[in-house]
Amino acid sequence: MTSLEPDERYSRQVLFRGIGPEGQRRLAEARVAVVGCGATGSAIASLLARAGVGTLRIIDRDYVEPSNLQRQTLFDEADAAESLPKAIAAARRIAAFNSQIVVEPQVADLTPDNIAALLEGMQLILDGTDNFETRYLINDFAVQASLPWIYTAAVGSYGVSLNILPGKTACLACVFPDSPRGAIETCETAGILNSAVNLAASIAVTEALKLMVGAEEQLRRTLLSFDVWHNQRAEVGASKPRIGCRACGLKDFVHLAGEGRPHITLCGRNSVQIHERHRPLDFAEMSQRLSPHGAVRHNAFVLKFWPEPYEVTLFPDGRAIIKGTTDTAVARSLYARYVGN
Amino acid sequence: MTKIHIPTPLRQYAGKQPAVEVKATTVGEALAGLVARHPDLRRHLYTDDGKLRAFVNVYVNDEDVRYLQKDATAVGDGDTISIVPSIAGGR
After folding, report:
1. What is the DSSP string of B22-90?
2. Mean pLDDT value of segment A120-148
3. Which pLDDT band, with edges at 50, 70 and 90, does A207 fall under?
4. B87 touches chain A (CB under 8 A)
5. Mean per-residue pLDDT for A147-171?
6. What's the rounded Cα separation, in Å, for the pair A239 and A74?
7. Which of A341, A337, A304, A310 is nearest to A326 (CA)?
8. Contacts of B51 in chain A (CB under 8 A)
9. With an 8 Å Cβ cutoff, are A130 and B82 in contact?
10. CA A38 centroid distance within chain
């Protein structure tokens, strides 16, 4: 029987001088949130879990689909067949390779209303999201709470990462005051190489390890971008807060105040999310009620329903992802018709 | 000449070139020269009223021009301008 003693498990990592026994002990005590568990998020969560980060909170609003499997390394075909929520599938997979850490899956969309509760007790936030709305929300929260976080993104063969230490380095709003709209490529138009995702995640996790073991002087203080296909790498300065920055300068946390976010259109997919609070759903009862209107199936985590030509995925808290439209009015009316007003 | 590095997400609008050399004395002139040569780039870099888009960052020798003199930041022979767009992907 192979030893599962922590000393044995982490021996190669402890031998690395930058970590050592003390660093490993700090990792075991660390509490880290990964927001979004898609391509970058699952690579990040996997590396952190194998490295022995003691508590990992994985927050994701989505479920596993076949098109995820090319790059989302924590999931398998059975997860996709079951439409398992990504946070749940990630926690199960991690438990199979490291049962000695605590993984806290949260099937939820991070919003201004729930961010404080979902990130409570975390010392570091890693970005596995696919959209700037959530990133600006994380940035506002992290700046207000003086929590470090790491921005990571990839599209095509291109990736970027930025370490944000509120008050010490530039924050996301210092570097990018506004989110991309329309003009720039997304994963939907440019596709994505799994190797670009994994490199971006590896870079972010290495920075996270430095932070957790107290090697802050080793942290990169630049916005790093690279292209694995065109063999390029660039770093530009991000070592100081920008004077007059909305977030870290003026403390104007507009995203935390949550102006106008009732519907969210998901990136890279023909679907709309509807976030309804205070509407716990009974899947067994819903299944019965919906079956005359289309195919329906459910497990403990999601209910899927197909009122042609749409696909409606419901979560136990009443949240829905409606596939087959990007029109929020259509999605809203489907929700009203089948779930309730 | 001043060299402008084009990031790969924008290269398709710049004749697929990784870099363009322009003659300019300021960042504003250099970018004007760039979009004159590659008109498709204009809408990716500038808003309809001619302002640099907030999600496109421009650096001169690794310093964000917002920290310097923005469009009026001086450039000359041997200076390098980098354009870094924000990107959202991750799923």
Report:
1. E--SBHHHHHHHHHHH-GGGHHHHB-TTSPBPTTEEEEETTEETTTTTGGG-B--TT-EEEEEE-----
2. 95
3. very high
4. yes
5. 95
6. 33
7. A310
8. none
9. no
10. 6
Within 190-229 of A, beta carbons closer than 8 Å to B belong to: 190, 192, 197, 222-223, 225, 227, 229
Please report, for chain B, the start and end positions of each structural domain, with discontinuous segments joined by +: 2-85
- Read off the pLDDT of each residue in A30-54 and give the average, rounded to a whole number: 97
CA atoms within 13 A on the CB side of A227: 16
CB contact under 8 A, B43 and A156: no
Residue carrying structure tokens 């990462």: A161
Closest residue of chain B to A73, computed from CA coordinates: B91
Question: A41 or B71: whose pLDDT is higher?
Answer: A41
Q: Is A149 exposed, middle or buried (0-12, 13-18, 19+ CB in 10 A)?
A: buried
pLDDT for residue A267: 47
pLDDT one-digit tens code per residue, A107-116: 998 999 999 9
Say yes or no for a CB contact (<8 Å) between A237 and B8.
no
Is A264-338 CATH 3.10.450?
no
CA–CA distance, A255 with A197 (Å, rounded to integer): 27
Give yes or no for a contact between B71 and B23, defined as CB atoms under 8 angstroms apart.
no
Q: Report B:25-44 residues touching A (Cβ under 8 A).
A: 43-44
pLDDT of residue A230: 87
Instruction: Give domain B2-85's CATH number out of 3.40.50.300, 3.40.1380.20, 3.10.20.30, 3.40.50.1110.
Output: 3.10.20.30
Q: Could you read off the pLDDT of A1-37 as tens digits, one per residue?
A: 455 677 799 999 999 999 999 999 999 999 999 999 9
Which ipTM was obtained for this model? 0.73
The yes-or-no verdict on residue B24 having pLDDT over 70 is yes
